[in-house]
Amino acid sequence: MPSSRSLGLLLLSFTILCWPHGALAYRPFDSTDPAVAEPGEVEIELSPVSFRHDNSGDTWIAPQLRFNYGFARNWELVIEGQGEYAPGATGVLVENGAFLKTVVREGTLQGQTGPSVAIEIGSLLPGINDQSGFGAELAGIIGNQFSWGAIHFTAAATLTRDNHGEMFLGTILEGPSFGSVRPVAEIVYEREFSVSESISALVGVIWEVREGLAFDFAVRQAAVDSDPETEIRAGITFAFSPF
Q1: What's the whole-model pTM score?
Q2: Segment holding 61, helix H or strand E
Q3: Left, alpha or beta for 88 (phi > 0: left; psi -120 to 50: alpha)?
Q4: CA 110 → CA 103, 126, 148, 218, distances in Å?
Q5: Alpha carbon distance 122, 190 (integer Å)
Q6: Per-residue model confidence as pLDDT tens digits over 192-203
Q7: In 3D, which of 166, 226, 221, 160 has the Cα closest to residue 190?
Q8: Is 55 buried (19+), middle (13-18) or exposed (0-12) by CB count in 10 A?
């Protein structure tokens, strides 16, 4: 578990680095939905502490941060990254990226009819103490709301920091709300060609306290090259207009 000093320094430095920008958009999932922040609005996704266990041991993820900034109608800027700590190892800052996301078809997620469609494109950025180099990613997202909930599908093609091709397919299911709480699930398939392959399933809940404030909790179970991986995720999403 990281010390409070190292955690505080990492959170402060990363927040200072990213504050003028925005973020991806949908905790606690790996994929996302075809919606963006409103113009002038900031959305912050934060997991103060999450946990992952696999064959290499335990890893604490602290913090995981994503920022969305709606800089124009149907457009947002996305910045993301996370700190990871394993017992006896040096802490790292990984999964860093900068993206642009745009809604190319307004649908039920924008108060219109039919499916919503979005495109996201951007760069994978170097980490600290791991994941050197740059990469690129292009994703298409389609989603629709129904009387019983919602479904969102993401398909992405990536050039990794090690110059490998990678594909990502993810589906999010949102169940009906029970008061302010709704159950959610996700299935993801990822393949980094000539390197690794994984499939995962996530189940959890989202508690929408009020508009612009939600808490989430989820458990993700994956098979990475047939090896088990378990992750416990918990976080908060909040939005505000700074200007």
Answers
A1: 0.87
A2: strand 57-72
A3: left
A4: 9, 34, 17, 26
A5: 18
A6: 999 999 999 999
A7: 166
A8: exposed
The sign of the dihedral angle between the CA atoms of 88, 89, 95, 97 is positive
Q: Where are the domains of the chain?
A: 4-240
Separation of alpha carbons 158 and 174, rounded Å = 26
What is the DSSP pairing of strand 165-174 with strand 57-72?
A: unpaired
Contact 184, 178 (CB under 8 A): no
Query: Looking at this protein, which amino acid is placed at residue 7?
Result: L
Largest CA distance in the chain: 53
Tokens of residue 119, six digits = 């495109």
> What's the CA gap between 73 and 5, in Å, rounded?
40
Domain 4-240: assigned CATH number: 2.40.160.40
**229/219 Cα distance (integer angstroms):** 11
* Mean pLDDT, all residues of the chain: 90
Give the tens place of pLDDT for each residue, 136-192: 999 999 999 999 999 999 999 999 999 999 999 999 999 999 999 999 999 999 999
38, 6, 31, 19: which is closest to 240 by C-alpha? 38
Residue type, 112: Q
DSSP 128: B
pLDDT tens, residue by residue, 31-86 = 999 999 999 999 999 999 999 999 999 999 999 999 999 999 999 999 999 999 99
